[in-house]
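Milestone 3.1: sequence recovery, worked example.
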C-alpha cells in the first residue's frame, strides 16, 4: 500500500519561505517521478514541480525561480522549498506519484 504524507505547511508573511516535505511509503519512491501540486478552491489543481528518480527536475513557469524540488532517497522523501512567497501562493499543496496523492498541507501567505 502506497501512502504519501505531506508536512511543513503553515502561515507565512509575504516574502517569507517554507519547506514542504512528502514522505512516501511502499516501493514507489525509487522507481517513479514524484511531483508537487497545489490547488486553490474553485480552481484546477496545478502542477508545480516534478523530480524523476534520476533525471532533471521540471518546474512550472508560474513558480520557476522561486521554488526548488529535491528528493532524499535515504528518507523516501521529497521536498519543496518555497521562497519569496506571495499572497497568491496561498493554497493546499499536494504530493503526487502516479495515481497516488497525499492529504495535502495548507500554505497561507498573509500579512
Amino acid at each position: 500500500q502506497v501512502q504519501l504524507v505531506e508536512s511543513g505547511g503553515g502561515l507565512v508573511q509575504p516574502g517569507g519561505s517554507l519547506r514542504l516535505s512528502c514522505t512516501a511509503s511502499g516501493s514507489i519512491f525509487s522507481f517513479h517521478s514524484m511531483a508537487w501540486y497545489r490547488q486553490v478552491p474553485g480552481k484546477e489543481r496545478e502542477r508545480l514541480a516534478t523530480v524523476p528518480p534520476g533525471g532533471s527536475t521540471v518546474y512550472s513557469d508560474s513558480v520557476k525561480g522561486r521554488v526548488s524540488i529535491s528528493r532524499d532517497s535515504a528518507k523516501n522523501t521529497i521536498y519543496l522549498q518555497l521562497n519569496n512567497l506571495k499572497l497568491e501562493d496561498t493554497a493546499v499543496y499536494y504530493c503526487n506519484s502516479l495515481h497516488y496523492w497525499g492529504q495535502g498541507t495548507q500554505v497561507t501567505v498573509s500579512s
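The chain is about 5% helix and 50% strand. The first strand starts at residue 4 and ends at 7.
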